Amino acid sequence: MINDITNETKSKMKATLSVFEQDLQGIRSGRASTGLVDRLEIDYYGQPTELRQLANISTPEAMQILIRPYDVGAVKAIEKAIKEANVGANPNVDGASIRLNMPALTRERRQELVKVLHKRMEDARVSIRNIRRGAIDDLRDFEKEKMISEDELKRGEAEIQKLTDDFINKIEELGKVKEKEITEI
Fold first, then answer.
1. Which of 35, 49, 118, 121 could bridge 175 with an S-S bond, Cβ 3.0-4.6 Å?
2. The Cα angle at residue 139 between residues 136 and 142, in degrees rounded to 5
């Protein structure tokens, strides 16, 4: 009973951490990263489709992203989506490929990115805490219905709290690494 709740809680927390890691890839640091554009939604023949499904995305140089669509007909739609997403670089269409030359980050822009990072970290921590609250509520319901004892409830709450602390620490560590990456010149 308690193990089921603990395992379910752990998998939900892992999913939250995974989403947070993907969010971090979308926050620009000092170098060009494919994570900046690979999840962009492109209107591909009326269907919203992620860019990574439509093109090969690479970083041939430290400050450049190269996008090679599998279908040359998608170039205009990709260019439009990049302009609308405001990723901080204008797309240069070169026949069948698109190049994004990333400008150097200004100090103000770095500070803005750190603020965005801190907000995303807080959102992830809140998600983890909400998962914890749900799990503890489930445990308390089991205890009320006499499905588990009071001792089992305390043990379960302690396990859930330990999981919560572990995942919040992982979020903090990832955030510190990303902040260092953003602020490095």
1. 121
2. 155
| Token pair for 185 | 């010149």
Instruction: Give me Rg for the CA atoms of the chain.
Output: 22
3-state secondary structure 137-173: HHHHHHHHCCCCCHHHHHHHHHHHHHHHHHHHHHHHH
Q: What domains appear along the chain, each with residue ranges and CATH number?
A: 2-25+106-183 (1.10.132.20), 31-101 (3.30.1360.40)
**How buried is 86 (Cβ within 10 angstroms: 0-12 exposed, 13-18 middle, 19+ buried)?**
exposed
Sign, CA torsion 28/32/104/173: positive
Alpha-carbon distance 14 to 65, whole Å?
30
Measured in whole angstroms, the distance separating CA 167 from the mean position of its chain's CA atoms is 15
pLDDT category at 185 given cuts 50, 70, 90 is low
